[in-house]
Amino acid sequence: MAIDTLSPKPEPVIADPGRANPARWLVVAIPYLWLLLFFAAPFFIIAKISLSDTAIAMPPYTPVFEGFGKFGEFFSQLDFENYEFLASDSLYIKSYLNSLRIAAISTVLLLLIGYPMALAMARAKTSIRPILVMLVILPFWTSFLIRVYAWIGILKPEGLLTLLFQSIGLMGPDEQVQILRTDYAVFIGIVYSYLPFMVLPLYAALEKLDNTLLEAASDLGCPPWKAFWRITFPLSLPGVIAGSLICFIPITGEFVIPDLLGGADTLMIGKTLWTEFFNNRDWPLASAIAVILLAVLVIPIAYFQNQQQKAG
Amino acid sequence: MAKSLGPVKRKFSPWTDPTSVPFIRFENITKRFGNFVAVDNLTLDIYEREFFALLGPSGCGKTTLMRMLAGFEEPTEGRILLQGKDLAGVPPYRRPTNMMFQSYALFPHMTVEKNIAFGLEQDNLPKADIAARVEEMLKLVKLEQFAKRKPSQLSGGQRQRVALARSLAKRPKVLLLDEPLGALDKKLREETQFELTDLQHTLGLTFLIVTHDQEEAMTVSDRIAVMDKGVIMQVATPAEIYEAPNSRYVADFIGDINIIEGAVVSNSGAASGGVMLDCDGLKVVVDQECPASAGDRVAFAIRPEKVRLGIDPPTDTAVNAGAGEVWDIGYLGDFSLFLVKLDDGRIIRAAQANIQRLVDRPLTFGDRVWVHWSRDAGLVLTR
Questions:
Q1: Which InterPro entries does the record cross-reference, listed alphabetically (chain A) (predicted)?
Q2: Tens-place pLDDT, residues A221-256
Q3: Which of B93, B109, B155 sits opposite A222 (nearest CB)?
Q4: A12 is a domain residue
C-alpha cells in the first residue's frame, strides 16, 4: 500500500498574486458594505428601539439619542420591558408558535409536491429540461401581489372554484366553497407562491445525480423503489435542506398571504407585527417582535450553515 | 500443423469441444436505437469460467452487448440465454450478473464497507454473514484499512478496487467489466490486469470484459471477440487473433502490421510451394492454406517484428525481400521501429529488439538496407 495515501499530503504552496491587489479588496468590500449599511445598521436601530418606551411624539418612542453629552442618561432609559411584555401576553407566543406551525406544515407540503416535480424534471429528456425550468420560473413574470389577489378571485364564495364545482355538478346552485379567510386558503397561497423556491434547489440537486449510480444499485439487486430511498433521496438531501430553509424562513415571517387570504383568526407573527407597528403605533413592541423573530430563525439558518460545511 | 500460434496460457478450451454447452449465448441479437443499428444479428457463445473480451473501437456495439446481458437494455431482436434460460424481461436487479462500471459508480454517500455490503444487503443475508463477506472482499482487494473511508477520500486505483470488490461480493455467475482499467495509469493498469486474471482463476467465475485497449484484452482474456459496427469480425484466442487474423480489419486493429495489397499468381497449398503473390512488383511467397485462386485480389500482412532488417542482402533477393533506405526510426526502448522506404516507394515497418546495449554501427537515416522475411512469417488475407 502506498504510504502517501495514508497521510494527507501537504498543500502545495502557491503564491497568491491577488493578495496585495486593492481592486480585489474593493470587489469583496462592496457587498459587505452594502450588508453593513442596509442590514446591520437597520438591525441595530431596531434593536435599540425595541429597548425603548412608546411615546406620543415624533418619532413615537423615547429616549432619542441626542448626542454624546447625555450618553449615560440615554442608556439608563433603555430596558427589556417590551420583551417582558411579549413573554407575558400569550397572544405573541401563540403567534410565533402558529407561524412556525404553518411554516412547518407548508414546507412539508411543498416538499411532497415539489420533490416529484423536481424528480420528473431531472429525469426528463435533456432537450426539454430548459423548457420545464422556464415553466417553473414563469409565475415570476407577474407580480406576486397580483398572483395572490388572483387566488381571492378563485377561492371566494362566488369565485371561480364555486363556479367550476357547480358546473360539473359537484355542488348545488345554492352552495359555495368556504375556503377564503381560512387557514386552508393560507396554505394554498403559501404552497403556490413558494413552490418554485422549493423545486429549483431540489432540481439542481437531482439533476446532478449520476444515473449510473441507479444502474449500479439495480445491478446489485436493488429494485427501483428501494434505490430511491437508498441512493436518490440521500444524495438529494442538500437540495431538500436548501429548499426547505429557503421556504421555511420567509414563510415564518410571511405577512401578505395570511393578510389577504387568511381569516381574522389566522394568527401569524408577520400580521401581529404589522398590527403593532401600523395600527397601535407601538414601534418598540413591534421592534421587539422583529428581534425575537430573527433570533428564532437564526437557529435553522445556523443548522443549514453547519450542514453545508459538513457536505463541503 | 506441427507449429502452433503463440504461448498457451492455461489448458482451457471448451470452445474446441463440440460437446460442451455454452454458459452464455447471444442468439441472433439485434439492437437498434432509432435508425442506428448498434448490434447487428450477432451470435456468440461464452463458456463457463471463461475470461472473455469484447474488443473494438468506440461505437462498435460492445458496450451495448454487455448492457443487454446486464439487463439495462433489451435486445430489439434475438435472445440471450444464461445457462439455457432466456433472460428476456428479467430486470437487472434479478439477474445473476454483476457489473464493474467504467466510472466505478461508487455510492458517494456510503463508506467503502457500505458500498461493498450494498449488494449483499439486497439479498437479506444475516448481518454477520454480510460482515464476514465484506471483510473477505476487503482483504481480497487489499483495502482493509480503508473500510470506513468515503469514495472521495480514495485514490483512483483504490476506487477501482472498491468497485471490483463490490461487483464480486455477491459471487455473480458472470462478472461484467466495462473498460475497468481505463482510468488507471499504465503501471497500475498492467499490475491490475494480472491481478484480474489471478482473481478469475481463484474464484472460478465467468468474466466478460469490454475494452478498446487491445493490450488489456490480450493480457487478461482466454478468448477475444473483435467487433466492428455491431458485427463480430473474429472470435479467437489472443495468440490466434494476433498471429492469424482473418481479415484486414482485425489485422490492422490489433497491433502494428504491414498490409500490402496484391494479386494471387498461383496457389498450390502450404505443403507444395505455397501461395505466390505479386504485389505490384514485390514477389511474395507464403506457406499457407488459403481459399484464394490465381488472379484474386488479396492482401499480404506481416507484423513488423517478423520483418528482418540488415545491411547485407539476403540469400534470395527475388522473393520475400526488398531493398531500400531507412526513412524514419522510432526508438521505443525495448525495441526500435524502422520505417524502410523501398526503392518502389513503398514503406515497410520493421521492428528490431534492442537486445544489445552497445552496437558497433547503429542504423541511421538514409542507410541502404534490405528487408526480408521467411515464408511462414506473413499471412495472406482474403477479406
A1: MetI-like (IPR000515), MetI-like_sf (IPR035906)
A2: 999 999 999 999 999 998 998 899 899 999 999 999
A3: B93
A4: no
